[in-house]
């Protein structure tokens, strides 16, 4: 595999893994913050969710994107590396 093709494959896999990580991270973070809001009574739960969920989605998505991108690039690099028998 040429270096240009390898770079394209690694970039695509890294971005795809980053997008998946952003979705998963945002959902997990929102779920955790939603569970923390369950302790409030008399309408406080809705206020807590309205306040905490957008920030949780942003934070989880950002973290998930970067982690997914790094892991995806690492795995794609390992999968496309040249072996001694490929010369």
UniProtKB/TrEMBL annotation:
Signal peptide stretch: 1-24
Q: Which UniProt keywords apply?
A: Signal
* PROSITE patterns for the chain: PROKAR_LIPOPROTEIN
The highest taxon in the source lineage is Bacteria
Name-wise, this protein is: Lipoprotein
Q: What is the lineage of its organism?
A: Bacteria, Bacillati, Cyanobacteriota, Cyanophyceae, Chroococcidiopsidales
